[in-house]
Design a protein that fits this description.
Elements (H helix, E strand, L loop, with lengths): L2 H4 L1 H7 L24 E4 L2 E6 L6 E3 L12 E3 L5 E5 L12 E3 L4 E5 L12 E3 L4 E5 L12 E3 L4 E4 L19 E3 L4 E2 L18
Parallel strand pairs: 2-4, 3-5, 4-6, 5-7, 6-8, 7-9, 8-10, 9-11, 10-12, 11-13
Antiparallel strand pairs: 1-2
Length: 201
C-alpha cells in the first residue's frame, strides 16, 4: 500500500497546487493547513483559498474537485493561471465564492458549475473563455453576482424553456455582467422578469 492509499485526505489537499509555480515561501511541506499564506482550514480541511494577485502560475486540475469543504476559491489577478476550468469544480458543493477574474483561463464554461447550489458570487471575467453560456447556470439559485464579461463567449443568453433552465431563474441575482463578448440575438423580456431583483445588466 502506498502513501496515496494511506493518506487520501493529505493527497487531496496538496495535489491541486502541486505543480504551481511562484508559490509563497510559507507553502512548505505537504499540509496546507500548516500556516500556508492565503489558505484557511477547519478541522484540517481546506475551506478557503484567497490567492489573488500572488503571481501564481499553473492550472486548475481535476484534483480541485476533492476539496469538498471549500467555500471560497479566489485566484483573481494571477495572469499565469490558465488552461481549462475542470468539470470537477462542480463537486465543490459548499462553494460560495468563485473568483477567477483577470487570469488566463480558456475553453468553455463547464456545465457542472450549475451544480454549485450554494454559490453566491461567480466572477469569470477578463479571461479567454469561449463557447456558449451553459444553461445549467440557471440552477445557481443563490447567485447574487454573475460576471462573465471580457471573454470570447458566443451565442445567446439562455432563458428557461422546454429545453432546460436559463438565467431568468436567478431570482436573487442583482448583477449580470456580459459585456465585451461575442453574444448575439435578442435580450428576451423573460430575462427581465418582475420577480427578479436585478440592478445592473
Amino acid at each position: 500500500m502506498n502513501l496515496r492509499d494511506l493518506c487520501p485526505k493529505l493527497t487531496a489537499l496538496s495535489s491541486p497546487t502541486e505543480f504551481w509555480e511562484n508559490k509563497p515561501p510559507s507553502w512548505v511541506g505537504t499540509d496546507p493547513c500548516g500556516g500556508w499564506e492565503g489558505i484557511e482550514c477547519s478541522n484540517s480541511r481546506v475551506t478557503s483559498k484567497k490567492l489573488s494577485s500572488m503571481n501564481l502560475k499553473g492550472s486548475l486540475t481535476e484534483a480541485i474537485g476533492r476539496l469538498t469543504e471549500l467555500k471560497t476559491l479566489d485566484l483573481s489577478c494571477n495572469k499565469g493561471m490558465g488552461g481549462r476550468i475542470p468539470a470537477e469544480i462542480g463537486n465543490l458543493s459548499k462553494l460560495q465564492i468563485l473568483s477567477l477574474v483577470g487570469c488566463d483561463f480558456s475553453g468553455p464554461i463547464p456545465q457542472p458549475l450549475g451544480d454549485l447550489k450554494q454559490l453566491t458570487f461567480l466572477a469569470l471575467n477578463l479571461n479567454r473563455l469561449s463557447g456558449n453560456i451553459p444553461r445549467t447556470l440557471g440552477n445557481l439559485s443563490n447567485v447574487n453576482w454573475l460576471d462573465i464579461a471580457d471573454n470570447q463567449i458566443e451565442g445567446h443568453i439562455p432563458i428557461s424553456d422546454e429545453e432546460g433552465p436559463g438565467l431568468d431563474m436567478l431570482l436573487k441575482a442583482e448583477h449580470f455582467h456580459f459585456e465585451n463578448n461575442r453574444l448575439s440575438g435578442e435580450v428576451q423580456a423573460q430575462l427581465l422578469s418582475s420577480k427578479m431583483i436585478l440592478k445592473h445588466l
